[in-house]
Amino acid sequence: MVGFGLVYGGPGAVFWSSLARVTSSWVISPLMGAMVSFLVYKFIRRFVYSAPNPGQAAATAAPMAVFLGVTGISFAAFPLSKVFPLALAQAVASGAVGAFLVDRIIRKQLGHLLVKASSSQSEPKENAIHSKNIGLLSDFAGPKGTQLEIVYGVFGYMQILSACFMSFAHGGNDVSNAIGPLAAALSILHGGASGAEIIIPVDVLAWGGFGIVAGLMMWGYRVIATIGKKITELTPTRGFAAEFAAASVVLVASKLGLPISATHTLVGAVMGVGFARGLNSVRAETVREIVVSWVVTIPVGAIFAVFYTWIMTKLLSYIL
Q1: pLDDT given at position 194
Q2: Closest C-alpha to 30, from 283, 272, 295, 299
Q3: Distance (Å, whole) CA 201 – CA 95
């Protein structure tokens, strides 16, 4: 967009204050993602891993997290009514239904392990963790055996939901970034003023959704491999913390109208759960490559925009 503006109107055609707001969000969003994921993962370790029965604690915490997440999304993104009390009540009802369904699934799939873990609680344990002596930032050994299997099983289901949450936030932000210029051009072509509210046709949004899914199918595996394997070692609990934190940050940014990158935020969130385990748990080489690629794409995008604009103007002047 900056390259196109420079070609057609010069430096005066670019709203530099808006550009500064956008570029600052590229720096702020990974930091926010890292901070939120750090805290989420530390909360999981503090209130699930250090519990007397970690498996039962995970099974109890999962419906609560789903209730809060579904209620928040329903109220913020899908308000079913313009009346505040009614919209809030409907959002709470949606969260309660989601929490009930998740609880039923967990009890059905992992019930036998929960019973096994509960029956073994009466046995004395040499490595028992006394939660009252553990702070949020304290480090300690996590659960093992059946308890670890239950915790990973619960957060495996939770990670499916957090991935859906992240996909929703990603679509709400990155598809909007791609469709924004096209929507503005269509609005002007249909006689709308440049400062007027832009009404985006549903078919244009559908094409944007199709494009992002097609890109995921063809090239997404490269980014998935980098984020999932090359930054830090991920487990179901760490993956849930990273996805939940990144999706929350992106969704809030979308609500505020900040065109941040979901990938920037998710990378920061993955780094955050790595930092929660220690600075050496994050691979500095991979992070360095990612940051360099972020910096390079800005001037390269502008250069390509100038080049394509020049070609299109030449072609149109020849045809017309």
Answers
A1: 56
A2: 272
A3: 30
Q: Which positions ≥6 away from 153 have C-beta within 8 Å?
A: 106, 109, 110, 113
Q: What is the pLDDT of residues 134-174, one digit of tens each?
A: 555 555 566 788 888 899 999 999 999 888 888 877 777 77
pTM recorded for the entire structure: 0.79
Cα end-to-end span (Å), the chain? 25
**Encoded tokens for 106:** 């967990």
Longest dimension (CA), the chain: 86
Is-contact 249 30, C-beta < 8 A? no
SS3 breakdown of the chain: % helix, strand, coil, rounded to 5?
80, 0, 20
- What are the tens digits of pLDDT across the range 256-300? 766 677 888 999 999 999 998 888 889 989 889 888 988 888 889
The Cα 43–Cα 48 span in angstroms is 8
Q: Are 237 and 152 spatial neighbours (Cβ–Cβ below 8 Å)? A: yes
- What's the one-letter identity of residue 94? S
* DSSP 8-state code for residue 133: G
CA neighbours closer than 13 Å in the CB half-sphere of residue 107: 8
For residues 150 and 161, give the distance between their C-alpha atoms in angstroms, rounded to a whole number.
17
Say which amino acid occupies 297.
Answer: T
254 in Cβ contact with 179 (< 8 Å): no
